[in-house]
C-alpha cells in the first residue's frame, strides 16, 4: 500500500505519515504508522475511538486501520495540498494566502463546532495548529490528527488530563492544571487565526515579539498593523475582523473566550459589531 514507505508526508510525536494507494489501483490514501515505542497502544485506541465517531466535510475522513503484531496504522483520505502551515506565512504567494483566508478559517470553525457539539460524542481535539489542518484540491480545510483528543460526555463541561497535551505556542494555559474544557480548542484556534491574519508566527524568534499583545496594542491605538499580503481596504477590514476574533479566543480566562458556535457567528458578522476584548497576557 505504501510502496515500502518511500513517500513520507510528515512526522509527529506519535508516528509518521506516508502516502499510499489502495489495492488494485485504488484511491490515494495517507497511512499513519504509530511509533511502537510510544505508550502501550493507548494513542492508537484513542485516535481510532475519536475519529471513527465523526463524519464532517471539515474533518479528514477515516478509512480504516491495520494491526500487524506490534505495528499499528490508521488509514485516512489523502489531502494533496498538504497542511495549512505551507500557506499562511508572509513568504508564500499572495495568491495562495488570499485563497486560504477567511473562508478557510470559517470552515475550520465549523469543523470544531461539530466536534464540540454536533457529533455523537463531544470531542476536544487538544492539538489545533496549522500543521494539523490539511488542505484538499478544492482548498477545503480538514482537521486531522486526533492522537491527543479526549472524548467528553454531554453531561460534563470539563475532562481530566494525565500529563500535558498539545503543542507549545498553541496550548491553552489551563492545560497545565490537568482539567480542560472545549475552550482549550478555542484558544488554539485563536492563535492560528492571529497567525493567518498577520501572515506571521505567534512568536518571532529573531525579534522576540509575541504577536497577540503586540497586535492588540497596534489595533487599539489605530497604528499600522503591518499585515502581509493586504492590498485593498476590504482585505484590511477582513484581517482586522480576524484579529479581533482571534484576540477574543486567546483570552487567558476560559470563561471569557467564546464557544466555537459564537466564533462562527463572529466570523459571519461585521467588524463594526465586534467589541475589542481585554489585552491578552504577555508570554
UniProtKB/TrEMBL annotation:
Keywords: ATP-binding, Glycoprotein, Kinase, Membrane, Nucleotide-binding, Receptor, Serine/threonine-protein kinase, Signal, Transferase, Transmembrane, Transmembrane helix. GO terms for cellular component: membrane. This is Pr5-like receptor kinase. Gene3D superfamilies: Phosphorylase Kinase, domain 1, Transferase(Phosphotransferase) domain 1. It comes from the Eukaryota. InterPro entries: Kinase-like_dom_sf (IPR011009), LRK10/LRL21-25-like (IPR045874), Prot_kinase_dom (IPR000719), Protein_kinase_ATP_BS (IPR017441), Ser/Thr_kinase_AS (IPR008271). Residues 3-274 form the Protein kinase domain. It comes from Thalictrum thalictroides. GO terms for molecular function: ATP binding; protein serine/threonine kinase activity. ATP binds at residue 32. It is found in: Membrane. The keyword Isomerase does not apply. Belongs to the protein kinase superfamily. It is a single-pass type I membrane protein.
Amino acid at each position: 500500500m505504501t510502496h515500502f514507505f518511500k513517500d513520507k508526508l510528515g512526522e509527529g510525536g506519535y508516528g509518521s505519515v506516508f502516502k499510499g494507494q489502495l489495492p488494485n489501483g485504488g484511491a490515494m490514501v495517507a497511512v499513519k504508522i504509530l511509533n511502537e515505542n510510544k505508550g502501550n497502544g493507548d494513542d492508537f485506541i484513542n485516535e481510532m475511538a475519536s475519529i471513527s465517531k465523526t463524519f464532517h466535510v471539515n474533518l479528514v475522513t477515516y478509512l480504516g486501520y491495520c494491526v500487524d503484531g506490534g505495528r499499528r496504522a490508521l488509514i485516512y483520505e489523502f489531502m494533496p495540498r498538504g497542511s495549512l502551515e505551507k500557506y499562511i506565512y508572509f513568504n508564500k504567494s499572495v495568491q495562495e494566502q488570499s485563497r486560504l483566508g477567511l473562508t478557510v478559517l470559517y470552515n475550520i470553525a465549523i469543523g470544531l463546532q461539530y466536534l464540540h457539539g454536533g457529533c455523537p460524542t463531544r470531542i476536544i481535539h487538544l492539538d489545533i495548529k496549522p500543521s494539523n489542518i490539511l488542505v484538499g484540491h478544492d482548498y477545503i480545510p480538514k482537521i486531522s490528527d486526533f492522537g491527543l483528543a479526549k472524548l467528553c460526555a454531554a453531561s460534563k463541561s470539563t475532562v481530566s488530563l494525565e500529563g500535558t497535551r498539545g503543542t507549545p505556542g498553541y496550548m491553552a494555559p489551563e492545560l497545565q492544571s490537568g482539567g480542560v474544557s472545549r475552550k482549550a480548542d478555542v484558544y488554539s484556534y485563536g492563535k492560528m487565526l492571529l497567525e493567518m491574519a498577520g501572515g506571521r508566527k505567534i512568536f518571532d524568534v529573531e525579534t522576540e515579539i509575541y504577536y497577540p499583545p503586540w497586535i492588540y496594542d497596534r489595533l487599539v491605538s489605530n497604528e499600522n498593523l503591518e499585515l502581509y499580503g493586504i492590498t485593498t481596504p476590504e482585505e484590511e477590514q477582513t484581517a482586522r475582523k480576524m484579529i479581533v476574533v482571534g484576540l477574543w479566543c486567546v483570552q487567558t480566562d476560559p470563561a471569557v473566550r467564546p464557544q466555537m458556535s459564537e466564533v462562527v457567528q463572529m466570523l459571519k458578522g461585521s467588524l463594526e459589531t465586534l467589541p475589542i476584548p481585554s489585552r491578552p497576557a504577555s508570554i
